[in-house]
Amino acid sequence: MTDLFTAEALAALLQVIAIDLVLAGDNAIVVGMAAAAVPLAQRRKVIFWGIAAAMGLRVFFALITTQLLAIIGLTLAGGVLLLWVCWKMFRELRSHGADEIAPDEAMDAPDPSGTVTAGVAGNAAVAAAGATTFGAAIWQIVVADVSMSLDNVLAVAGAAKEHPTILVIGLVLSVVLMGAAANMIAHVLHKHRWIGWVGLAIISYVALDMIWRGSNEVLRHMA
């Protein structure tokens, strides 16, 4: 635990917390939007299994983080992947997230099967999407979760660098936030967009740092 009490370690810890918060909120938005596209009677199941899948994938990738980071070139590939995530985040933040829906809001969204409920019934994007089957919604979430969970683990590992304690804290925190507070975080990020911009800046820095370190690693291996 002694590595926690240095300025470098504390800076890395703050980066990890910011990354976990932003990516947990983004994952919740993915779950909410997928749930809003299925008939109302199936939405609770979609939300439950969507969040469960996100938690499970985070645990899985966390368990093999050491093996992942030992692969020559993965740090570079992870940095490039995170840059793509940053581009998506930038586009979402620039559009002010007008079409974003948190899991709890999905329960009040228009029923694409024909029944319109209270709440955000005016969300035309959801209504226009048409009904999606339960299986298709789960598959959509799982595909997104694989990418986002890997992004989360690589970003946390990239920020933690040579601090294994912070790496463990970050990975545990990402699972806890996804399971217990993702819905609330999604609302906070939607209301206070500046938090998302701060998170975007931190993840961009981590991505560029990973690309730099990964490139040097590959060049050393080739030499």
Automatic annotation (TrEMBL):
Keywords from the UniProt entry: Membrane, Plasmid, Transmembrane, Transmembrane helix
InterPro entries reported for this sequence: Integral_membrane_TerC (IPR005496), Integral_membrane_YjbE (IPR022301)
Localization per record: Membrane
Main location: membrane
Organism superkingdom: Bacteria
Pfam families reported in the protein's UniProt record: TerC (PF03741)
Residues passing through the membrane, by range: 12-34, 46-64, 70-87, 166-188, 194-212
Keyword Transmembrane helix: yes
GO cellular component: membrane
Membrane association type: Multi-pass membrane protein
Family the entry assigns: Belongs to the TerC family.
Name of the protein in its database record: Membrane protein
Biological source species: Azospirillum argentinense
Lineage: Bacteria, Pseudomonadati, Pseudomonadota, Alphaproteobacteria, Rhodospirillales
